[in-house]
Amino acid sequence: MSDTVDDELWSAVGDPTRRRMLDLMLAEGGGTATTLSERLPVTRQAVAKHLQLLERVGLVHSAASGRERRFRVDEGQLARAVEQLSSVTAAWDARLQRIKRIAEAIQRGQEN
Amino acid sequence: MSDTVDDELWSAVGDPTRRRMLDLMLAEGGGTATTLSERLPVTRQAVAKHLQLLERVGLVHSAASGRERRFRVDEGQLARAVEQLSSVTAAWDARLQRIKRIAEAIQRGQEN
DNA sequence: CCCTATGTGCAACCATCGGTTGCGCATAGG
DNA sequence: CCTATGCGCAACCGATGGTTGCACATAGGG
């Protein structure tokens, strides 16, 4: 029932800015702090901090080339995160539907 | 593509303590700051703050009776939150699968 | 070869958040 | 009436998401 969820992964994906960053990197096959910040409403430094966190939890990897540092999404790890999200939503969905069924049964006059 | 998501709802549900609180209230049909905190590893005051936030975003409602304040989950609003979670996971899932298909195509030697 | 433009990294600072402790107040009930 | 209990408020603390400012390294045209 309760969360078999890796809170680190969940909260990494929980931030809206990080979600948009992952989205951008997926769409363009990667990015740098500078290029990402150009498409986001936050500064390069904020993006850099997020990239650091994302790398810490393994959702992205980076490689320095020249004076640039390119980041790439680790699709496997993101897939695992998505899987966890969906398992939590599924659990709640089930519980909500159970409650709905009970409510309907009560309304029909036959409690269990 | 990008998040048609209500960030307030998402981040309300993003906190692990709040998830457990919602879970408990769903299971027991409601609760107070005190009763919830007895089953959680945090203080009553921490729970009270979370309840305040949850009420602000409409995921719970409260009613004072005597010296108690009972909270109840708004199932409709929670259902909406769950729906948004699942729409985001679905979007990412689709994108990851698309990338996987492309990768396989390239490996087979036939790019598009 | 130098000088400038560009991309990074590091540090200080701020507000918010999740958490704590401590206190005062209101009410339920022997 | 007096005590136990539930609640609310305030101060404080560490982490986090954000900012500004600065120093440093490298790419590349004069």
Automatic annotation (TrEMBL), chains A, B:
CDD domains noted in UniProt: HTH_ARSR (cd00090)
UniProt signal peptide: none
Record-annotated HTH arsR-type domain positions: 1-93
Gene Ontology terms, MF aspect: DNA-binding transcription factor activity
Source organism superkingdom: Bacteria
PROSITE patterns the record matches: HTH_ARSR_2 (PS50987)
Cross-referenced InterPro entries: ArsR-like_HTH (IPR011991), HTH_ArsR_DNA-bd_dom (IPR001845), WH-like_DNA-bd_sf (IPR036388), WH_DNA-bd_sf (IPR036390)
Protein's recorded name: Winged helix-turn-helix transcriptional regulator
The organism of origin for this protein: Streptomyces mesophilus
